[in-house]
Amino acid sequence: MSRACRLPWLLALAVLAAPGYAAAHGVALDTHGCHHDRRAGDYHCHQGPLAGRVFPSRKVAGTTLWLVQQLAAQGADALALTADAQVIDGDTLELDGRRVRIHGIDAPERDQTCRAHGADTPCGQQATAAMRALVSGHPVTCVVAEVDTYGRLLGTCQGGNGADLGRAMVASGWALAFRHFSERYVPDEERARAMGAGIWAGEFTPPREWRRSHPR
Protein backbone atom coordinates (compact mmCIF):
# COMPACT_ATOMS: atom_id res chain seq x y z
CA MET A 1 0.00 0.00 0.00
CA SER A 2 1.41 3.39 -0.97
CA ARG A 3 2.09 6.12 1.57
CA ALA A 4 -0.76 8.16 0.03
CA CYS A 5 -3.19 5.27 0.57
CA ARG A 6 -1.99 4.59 4.12
CA LEU A 7 -2.34 8.19 5.34
CA PRO A 8 -6.18 8.33 5.64
CA TRP A 9 -6.18 5.04 7.58
CA LEU A 10 -3.46 6.26 9.93
CA LEU A 11 -5.40 9.46 10.57
CA ALA A 12 -8.56 7.48 11.27
CA LEU A 13 -6.74 5.20 13.71
CA ALA A 14 -5.26 8.21 15.49
CA VAL A 15 -8.73 9.72 15.96
CA LEU A 16 -10.21 6.46 17.19
CA ALA A 17 -7.34 6.05 19.65
CA ALA A 18 -7.84 9.54 21.07
CA PRO A 19 -9.04 9.51 24.73
CA GLY A 20 -12.76 8.98 24.99
CA TYR A 21 -13.49 8.77 21.26
CA ALA A 22 -13.91 5.04 20.76
CA ALA A 23 -15.39 4.60 24.22
CA ALA A 24 -17.92 7.35 23.60
CA HIS A 25 -19.14 5.71 20.37
CA GLY A 26 -18.26 8.77 18.35
CA VAL A 27 -20.27 11.11 20.57
CA ALA A 28 -18.58 14.14 22.11
CA LEU A 29 -18.12 13.96 25.87
CA ASP A 30 -19.33 16.75 28.12
CA THR A 31 -17.47 18.40 30.98
CA HIS A 32 -18.18 15.39 33.23
CA GLY A 33 -16.46 13.09 30.72
CA CYS A 34 -19.87 11.56 29.96
CA HIS A 35 -22.63 11.58 27.36
CA HIS A 36 -26.26 10.60 26.86
CA ASP A 37 -26.79 7.25 25.19
CA ARG A 38 -30.00 7.70 23.20
CA ARG A 39 -30.23 4.02 22.37
CA ALA A 40 -29.98 2.85 25.99
CA GLY A 41 -31.76 5.89 27.36
CA ASP A 42 -29.16 6.54 30.04
CA TYR A 43 -26.13 8.71 30.71
CA HIS A 44 -22.75 7.09 31.01
CA CYS A 45 -19.18 8.13 31.56
CA HIS A 46 -15.89 7.32 29.89
CA GLN A 47 -13.40 9.74 31.44
CA GLY A 48 -12.67 11.35 34.78
CA PRO A 49 -13.70 10.22 38.27
CA LEU A 50 -16.99 8.75 36.98
CA ALA A 51 -15.44 6.65 34.19
CA GLY A 52 -17.18 3.32 33.76
CA ARG A 53 -20.34 4.34 35.63
CA VAL A 54 -23.87 4.61 34.24
CA PHE A 55 -26.49 7.04 35.58
CA PRO A 56 -30.17 7.68 34.88
CA SER A 57 -29.48 11.36 34.12
CA ARG A 58 -26.84 14.06 33.97
CA LYS A 59 -28.27 15.55 37.18
CA VAL A 60 -27.56 12.35 39.10
CA ALA A 61 -24.06 12.17 37.62
CA GLY A 62 -23.38 15.80 38.54
CA THR A 63 -24.37 15.30 42.17
CA THR A 64 -22.34 12.09 42.30
CA LEU A 65 -19.29 13.85 40.87
CA TRP A 66 -19.62 16.62 43.46
CA LEU A 67 -19.84 14.06 46.27
CA VAL A 68 -16.90 12.03 44.95
CA GLN A 69 -14.76 15.16 44.80
CA GLN A 70 -15.76 16.21 48.33
CA LEU A 71 -14.99 12.78 49.75
CA ALA A 72 -11.65 12.64 47.94
CA ALA A 73 -10.68 16.10 49.23
CA GLN A 74 -11.42 15.03 52.81
CA GLY A 75 -10.13 11.47 52.47
CA ALA A 76 -13.38 10.24 53.99
CA ASP A 77 -16.06 7.64 53.28
CA ALA A 78 -18.92 9.98 54.22
CA LEU A 79 -19.49 13.71 54.15
CA ALA A 80 -21.04 15.71 57.01
CA LEU A 81 -23.07 18.75 55.98
CA THR A 82 -24.20 21.18 58.67
CA ALA A 83 -26.53 24.09 57.88
CA ASP A 84 -29.95 25.54 58.48
CA ALA A 85 -32.33 23.24 56.66
CA GLN A 86 -35.17 24.04 54.32
CA VAL A 87 -37.89 21.40 54.62
CA ILE A 88 -39.04 20.07 51.25
CA ASP A 89 -41.34 17.39 52.66
CA GLY A 90 -41.46 14.80 55.42
CA ASP A 91 -38.32 12.98 54.32
CA THR A 92 -36.37 15.51 52.26
CA LEU A 93 -34.34 18.54 53.33
CA GLU A 94 -32.23 21.10 51.53
CA LEU A 95 -28.91 22.19 53.02
CA ASP A 96 -26.84 24.86 51.27
CA GLY A 97 -28.66 24.21 48.01
CA ARG A 98 -28.18 20.43 48.16
CA ARG A 99 -31.22 18.21 48.58
CA VAL A 100 -30.85 15.39 51.09
CA ARG A 101 -33.21 12.42 51.19
CA ILE A 102 -33.24 10.86 54.65
CA HIS A 103 -32.21 7.23 54.36
CA GLY A 104 -34.49 4.52 55.74
CA ILE A 105 -37.78 6.44 55.96
CA ASP A 106 -40.65 7.18 53.59
CA ALA A 107 -43.09 9.97 54.44
CA PRO A 108 -46.37 10.82 52.69
CA GLU A 109 -45.89 13.06 49.67
CA ARG A 110 -46.83 16.72 50.16
CA ASP A 111 -50.03 16.43 48.11
CA GLN A 112 -50.99 13.01 49.47
CA THR A 113 -54.16 12.57 51.51
CA CYS A 114 -55.08 9.88 54.05
CA ARG A 115 -58.28 8.95 55.89
CA ALA A 116 -58.93 9.50 59.58
CA HIS A 117 -62.20 9.57 61.50
CA GLY A 118 -64.15 9.15 58.27
CA ALA A 119 -62.66 12.15 56.50
CA ASP A 120 -59.75 12.92 54.20
CA THR A 121 -56.74 14.43 55.92
CA PRO A 122 -53.77 16.25 54.34
CA CYS A 123 -51.26 13.76 55.73
CA GLY A 124 -48.53 14.88 53.31
CA GLN A 125 -48.76 18.43 54.58
CA GLN A 126 -48.94 17.17 58.16
CA ALA A 127 -45.77 15.12 57.69
CA THR A 128 -44.02 18.16 56.21
CA ALA A 129 -45.14 20.26 59.18
CA ALA A 130 -43.86 17.59 61.58
CA MET A 131 -40.42 17.70 59.97
CA ARG A 132 -40.44 21.49 59.99
CA ALA A 133 -41.15 21.46 63.74
CA LEU A 134 -38.20 19.12 64.30
CA VAL A 135 -35.66 21.32 62.50
CA SER A 136 -37.05 24.78 63.25
CA GLY A 137 -34.48 27.16 64.70
CA HIS A 138 -31.61 24.66 64.77
CA PRO A 139 -28.85 23.75 62.31
CA VAL A 140 -29.11 20.24 60.92
CA THR A 141 -26.23 17.84 60.30
CA CYS A 142 -26.61 15.24 57.58
CA VAL A 143 -24.03 12.54 56.96
CA VAL A 144 -24.18 11.52 53.30
CA ALA A 145 -22.35 8.93 51.26
CA GLU A 146 -24.68 8.11 48.36
CA VAL A 147 -26.86 9.71 45.70
CA ASP A 148 -30.37 8.46 44.90
CA THR A 149 -31.95 8.05 41.46
CA TYR A 150 -33.36 11.59 41.59
CA GLY A 151 -29.99 13.24 42.15
CA ARG A 152 -30.50 13.84 45.87
CA LEU A 153 -27.87 13.10 48.48
CA LEU A 154 -28.85 10.17 50.68
CA GLY A 155 -27.96 10.00 54.35
CA THR A 156 -28.91 10.25 58.00
CA CYS A 157 -29.67 13.59 59.64
CA GLN A 158 -29.63 14.96 63.17
CA GLY A 159 -31.38 17.99 64.58
CA GLY A 160 -29.78 20.62 66.76
CA ASN A 161 -30.41 18.52 69.87
CA GLY A 162 -28.71 15.50 68.34
CA ALA A 163 -31.97 13.65 67.69
CA ASP A 164 -32.09 11.30 64.71
CA LEU A 165 -34.64 13.00 62.44
CA GLY A 166 -35.51 9.78 60.62
CA ARG A 167 -36.26 8.01 63.88
CA ALA A 168 -38.27 10.97 65.19
CA MET A 169 -40.46 11.02 62.08
CA VAL A 170 -41.14 7.28 62.16
CA ALA A 171 -41.68 7.21 65.93
CA SER A 172 -44.25 10.01 65.68
CA GLY A 173 -46.14 8.17 62.95
CA TRP A 174 -45.45 10.69 60.18
CA ALA A 175 -43.18 8.41 58.16
CA LEU A 176 -42.79 4.70 57.55
CA ALA A 177 -39.68 2.62 57.90
CA PHE A 178 -38.52 2.21 54.29
CA ARG A 179 -37.92 -1.52 54.55
CA HIS A 180 -36.90 -1.80 50.91
CA PHE A 181 -33.68 0.02 51.80
CA SER A 182 -33.24 -0.36 55.56
CA GLU A 183 -34.85 -1.99 58.61
CA ARG A 184 -33.21 0.45 61.00
CA TYR A 185 -36.47 2.12 61.98
CA VAL A 186 -38.79 -0.90 61.94
CA PRO A 187 -39.08 -1.07 65.77
CA ASP A 188 -40.01 2.63 65.84
CA GLU A 189 -42.69 2.04 63.22
CA GLU A 190 -44.14 -0.89 65.13
CA ARG A 191 -44.47 1.21 68.28
CA ALA A 192 -46.06 4.11 66.38
CA ARG A 193 -48.53 1.71 64.77
CA ALA A 194 -49.46 0.18 68.13
CA MET A 195 -50.13 3.66 69.55
CA GLY A 196 -52.09 4.85 66.52
CA ALA A 197 -49.74 7.78 66.09
CA GLY A 198 -49.73 10.07 63.05
CA ILE A 199 -50.97 8.35 59.91
CA TRP A 200 -51.58 5.18 61.91
CA ALA A 201 -54.63 6.91 63.42
CA GLY A 202 -56.53 6.12 60.23
CA GLU A 203 -56.10 4.56 56.80
CA PHE A 204 -53.50 5.41 54.21
CA THR A 205 -51.77 4.21 51.10
CA PRO A 206 -48.05 3.60 51.69
CA PRO A 207 -46.18 6.50 50.07
CA ARG A 208 -44.30 4.20 47.69
CA GLU A 209 -47.57 2.79 46.34
CA TRP A 210 -49.15 6.24 46.21
CA ARG A 211 -46.31 7.53 44.01
CA ARG A 212 -46.84 4.67 41.57
CA SER A 213 -50.46 5.68 41.07
CA HIS A 214 -49.63 9.41 40.94
CA PRO A 215 -46.70 9.68 38.50
CA ARG A 216 -45.19 13.12 38.09
CATH topology of the largest domain: OB fold (Dihydrolipoamide Acetyltransferase, E2P)
Shape: globular
Question: How many angstroms separate the termini?
Answer: 61 Å
User: Which sequence of strands runs across the widest sheet?
Assistant: 4-11-12-7-6-5
Mean of residue pLDDT? Answer: 88
Quickly name the level 1 CATH class of the largest domain: Mainly Beta
List the defining traits of the structure above.
three-stranded antiparallel β-sheet; alpha+beta; 25% strand; 13 strands; 2 domains; 216 residues
Task: Tell me what you see in this structure.
The protein has 216 residues and is an alpha+beta fold. It has two domains: 48 residues, no CATH class; 134 residues, Beta Barrel (OB fold (Dihydrolipoamide Acetyltransferase, E2P)), CATH 2.40.50.90. It has six helices and 13 strands. The strands form four sheets. Strands 4-11-12-7-6-5 form a six-stranded mixed β-sheet. It has a three-stranded antiparallel β-sheet with strand order 1-2-3. A two-stranded antiparallel ribbon has the order 8-13. A hairpin with a 2-residue loop joins β6 and β7. It starts with a helix and ends with a helix.
Summarize the structure.
This protein is of the alpha+beta class and 216 residues long. It contains six helices and 13 strands.
